[in-house]
Design goal:
- The protein is an alpha/beta fold.
- It has one domain: Rossmann fold (3-Layer(aba) Sandwich), CATH 3.40.50.
- The chain has nine helices and seven strands, in the order αβααβαβαβαββαβαα.
- Strands 1, 2, 3, 4, 5, 6 and 7 form a seven-stranded parallel sheet that branches.
Length: 232
């Protein structure tokens, strides 16, 4: 897709989706079992920092920020996930499950936190659209396209982006605002998403798109701040 594809979205309302940047998935103290090497660890840190900047820019421009978080419920186990990971279908949820509701692992991480009034949904599987009512919430706000960021690119970001596309939202994925626990897996995920799901871009290009689509008053304020050397 060319830059013209992104430009077409500039006259339509978009939203920034932040997926699963929670302690279980982003805090190095929780990631030991995933076996990240130095390059992958750095990519996670960098992606989270980039998402923080995108959230700040979106808020300054009046672009809705949508928070999608995993909430593992001990009372409602995900049997297929247990089976896929080599456990019995009817086994109880492990205490090591990520993002268990009410535990520190489920907390937002890295300086990211939903603000009052922003859409926030809790999911129990990969996609932010599955049984959460998110589609209806976005339609109510007049959202016509989405930018998907978060952790991890091959799993919950991919599932959320795929469902968004199938629900007829054009999808933009800034490559520097997502990561996986292996650099190779992240590269492969982005390649596959580019083939069938969304346009892969950068956080800088996405910010420019948000700026172009923002109300005139917000756009003028942000452009003035940039001229003074203050980031949005």
């Amino acid at each position: 897709m060319t830059a013209a594809g992104l430009a077409e979205l500039s006259s339509r309302a978009g939203a920034l989706l932040v997926v699963d940047v929670q302690r279980s998935f982003g805090d190095p103290d929780y990631l030991g079992d995933y076996g990240l090497d130095a390059e992958a660890s750095a990519s996670v840190v960098d992606a989270i920092a980039t998402i923080v900047r995108l959230v700040d820019s979106a808020r300054a421009l009046g672009v809705p920020v949508v928070w999608i978080e995993l909430g593992s419920d001990p009372g409602r186990t995900w049997k297929a996930s247990h089976w896929l990971r080599g456990r019995a279908l009817d086994s109880a949820q492990s205490p090591d499950e990520p993002c268990v509701i009410g535990t520190p692992g489920a907390e937002w991480y890295g300086g990211l936190e939903p603000a009052d009034g922003e859409i926030r949904v809790v999911k129990r599987v990969y996609s932010g659209f599955f049984e959460t009512g998110l589609d209806a919430m976005l339609r109510e706000k007049g959202i016509e396209w989405v930018a998907v960021t978060g952790l991890t690119s091959e799993c919950c970001v991919a599932a959320t982006a795929t469902d968004a596309m199938q629900l007829d939202y054009p999808v933009v994925i800034p490559a520097d605002a997502t990561a996986a626990y292996e650099v190779r897996i992240n590269e492969n995920a982005l390649e596959q998403l580019a083939l069938n799901v969304g346009q892969i871009t950068t956080s800088a290009e996405l910010t420019d798109l948000f700026t172009a689509s923002a109300p005139a008053s917000a756009r003028a304020s942000v452009l003035a701040s940039r001229a003074r050397g203050v980031s949005a």
